[in-house]
Amino acid sequence: CWLPAAARSPRGPGPGPGHGSGLPSSRYRSPESLLDCAAKAVAEKWAFERVEERFERIPEPVQRRIVYWSFPRNEKEICMYSSFQLGTGDGLPFRRGIRLLETGCVENVLQVGFHLSGTVTEPATSSEPEVTHKVAISFDRCKITSVTCGCGNRDIFYCAHVVALSLYRIRKPEQVKLRLPISETLFQMNRDQLQKLVQYLITAHHTEVLPTAQKLADEILSSNSEINQVHGAPDPTAGASIDDDNCWHLDEDQVREQVKQFLSQGGYYGSGKQLNSMFAKVREMLRMRDSNGARMLTLITEQFMADPRLSLWRQQGTGMTDKCRQLWDELGALWVCVVLNPHCKSEEKSGWLKQLKKWGDMDICPLEDGNYDSLSRPRRTVFSRAVEACDLHWQDSHLQRIISSDYYMSPSYQREGESLLFSPQGLPLWLDHVPTACARVDALRSHGYSREALRLAVAIINTLRLQQQRQMDIYKHQKKELLQRGVTSTTNLEGWVGHPLDPIGCLFITLTETCRVDDDNTMDTGDCDPRPPVYHHVPVWGSPDAGESYLTLALEVALMGMGQQRIMPEGLYAQDKVCRNEEQIVAKLQELELDDLLVQTLRKQAIQLLEAGPFSGLGEVIHRESVPMHTFAKYLFSALLPHDADLAYKVALRAMRLPVLESSAGSGDVGHPHHGISIVPSRYPRWFTLGHLESQQCELASTMLTAAKGDMLRLRTVLEAIQKNIHSSSLIFKLAQDAFKIATPAESPPDITLLNVALELGLQVMRMTLSTLNWRRREMVRWLVTCATEVGLRALVSILQSWYTLFTPTEATSIVAATVMSHNTILRLSLDYPQREELASCARTLALQCAMKDPQNCALSALTLCEKDHIAFETAYQIVIDAASTGMTYSQLFTIARYMEHRGYPLRSFKLASLAMTHLNLAYNQDTHPAINDVLWACALSHSLGKNELAAIIPLVVKSVHCATVLSDILRRCTMTAPGLAGIPGRRNSGKLMSTDKAPLRQLLDATISAYINTTHSRLTHISPRHYGEFIEFLSKARETFLLAQDGHIQFAQFIDNLKQIYKGKKKLMMLVRERFG
């Protein structure tokens, strides 16, 4: 067997003298006696029944030492069964148990054979009185097999009272009264003594044991009873029988109940954290080589498979939450660890395989790729990897040699030719499927074989190094052809980052664990926040390179894995997992403090990734659907920048690409036989995480921009990379804002180089969004003007002169030019008069161009901007007049007309109002139309200008307005005052009121009467009784208008008679008409 006996021991050393050794605390101790040495070994490995069978008579001193050493000796094991995490938190049973022990709360401790009992007193609190609990513990072969406590604890773990009693026995064994199993004591008694014992026992506990004692006495006295057919009698203190399983006490019902409860909470109230703690407990048990690890995992899995949400999700076709998916992933990974136990029995593995297949065959079993069920591949569940791992074994002789020795190398004379077992330097290789090989490492580490896991991890890394070197050699021969094509079909269809077995994370943890500087007492951390880990270099055992440490290897393999070029997997969950795993690895890398050795490794690997061609995600040519390297490159950039800025920028700029978004891609080259060739056409729509990937690309660019502040050459290079590779206007805008913020610190002068980059990015955003809808467009335009203002006068002049490539005419006039011409801008730039004039001239030119291009939306802004320049103002006005007949609405024209009146151009205002009237059509029933105020204003303006203007506009009003109430309102206003009160210079006004019998009001009166008649007939067509009163009031208003005419009363009377004749069927209405109008 390849593991030495010491490595296979299921127990590590105890916490120290007096803390697990079972011996008095003393600096100098005499060697253990041969009796104690033998008793310790027997107590740990043999059931006491086997000892009794083997030897006819066991001397009492030997029995005492075996019983003495049969109690657990390691406090870590007690801790494992009394807390979720290793001793963290004062509220945990383990910490509370220590407090009870140290404050003297444990008393009456007695060990009878393999049974320990005692009392533990909980001190009184402000709300609870003092209470004493009786505690009983059974144990066998250094494992606690059952516990009972008067506190009635119902939990997976032992209560604080069981912990206190257990630790008392471990720390103070010499203070515990020790007796042999009760059957041995009884054997030494004669009949009278036995009778006395029984009678005293019954007397002491007669209410509890008397019925049982009488029943047993009756059965013993009956010759045919079952009790007389069995030889001997049971003894609860005599230890386990040969057939009993030797395992720690685990309350299976409580495990089921708690998992069920946590699952029912659906990830809320910290249940996800609790389930992860249970998984961590399984790993802890596996590491201690405790058989309960697999047992507890089985119980957890059964409850997971019984979760009612599984069938619900399947029926509804909805996906489970990310948190839930991650729990299932961890469940699958744990099963891989369990079945890869290097020392499990074949019947155990067969049982697990059967159970895993049963779960995997169930319809509700979650799939490996989340909710995505690929039709192109066989169905794979979360247990598929574990089922496949059942076929793996540890019997390979090369594998056994790798694991069992730090110095396993090939002889020097065998290193000439190619070898599948050793590198050219003679180091052992392990040529297995990488995730599978790493699963072996994880299994070794998980089952407590950390040294063996390290050896295999080193062999895997040596294999990856050799493969990387050979891939670089292959690329050198194909480089010219590949660079001409610009794209490759060579890639890894199965990536290591985001893989269900997490190979890179597994190797990294295995290697860094041995380099971690831990506190002296890992079980006494209290409940403070976890501190970041501290690492130191540990040389690689047996490595020919003296500078190589497990920490440098960890960094190297993480970089190799992250830099591997790989196809984006199918399905939302698998893609999300790639992103999440990448971030997890980067977070671990950021915990490393980079010293010279690590920087050297970082530089070397970064250069290799850049030169590795299509096998690296940072190579010169990559597959169109290769997973982007933005997150990884951001880490590399930040890590390399202080040590090798040129390399940092080279890596980051290379990683900026996102080829899946490029519009076209050339044909790929022939793939390497060891790598998959993607023959799938563009699958861009299935990139579910594209938004996240683009934001990471943006983060990388922002990091580079920040670092390049003040360096014009670097900034120009980064800017070109952004413009070439980022295709989202929102993200480019974010970069522009970031650059602007960094370039304009509050307390110091702005950085003009970075400001110019921000401006260029902003201009690109403007061009990208000019012809597409973007809800942030107004914000973008305002920001660009702010940025250009910070850059200076020339930038503002430039955007004004090239406005048509950046802005719509409306934006250019209402936002850009208006802001540029504002008082604040002039002050901000401290412009002198010639500069102000230059800016104003550009703004006016822009305004006129916009007015020509879009008079409807820009004419008013153009007039406003050109107010201070007579020629420009006249030009703008002429543009409005020219556009009025064709492209402008009455509303726009009325607005400009009112503006002209406000600016003191009443005749121009009248002209525009007249043009607006030609575009208006007000129907008879539109008495709430929004244009009514404009019509009344236009007529009032005409009236104030004089009779001629009023005479000119009334025909337009009569033609456009058919609403009787509006016409009567205009007529009333025109007859109240004399026309021409505006006092136009050079005109004479008579000051007389105008008559409705003469033009132009006669035409308006006739039109109003006609409108009332038409409106009356229209309303009577569909009138209902509830509107009769309103109709009578309408006729009253009509009568007022009729009476303005000379023969108005006669016309109205004829009109009423006409109504009575035509609508005589509406008797009630006509009766109301007669009552009011006769």
TrEMBL record:
Residues 1-11 have a biased composition (Low complexity). The keyword Ligase does not apply. This is Zinc finger, SWIM-type containing 5. Residues 1-27 are annotated as: Disordered. GO terms for cellular component: Cul2-RING ubiquitin ligase complex. It comes from Oreochromis niloticus (Nile tilapia). Residues 892-1069 form the ZSWIM4-8 C-terminal domain. Keywords: Metal-binding, Zinc, Zinc-finger. Transmembrane segments: none annotated. The keyword Zinc applies. GO terms for molecular function: zinc ion binding. Pfam families: ZSWIM4-8_C.
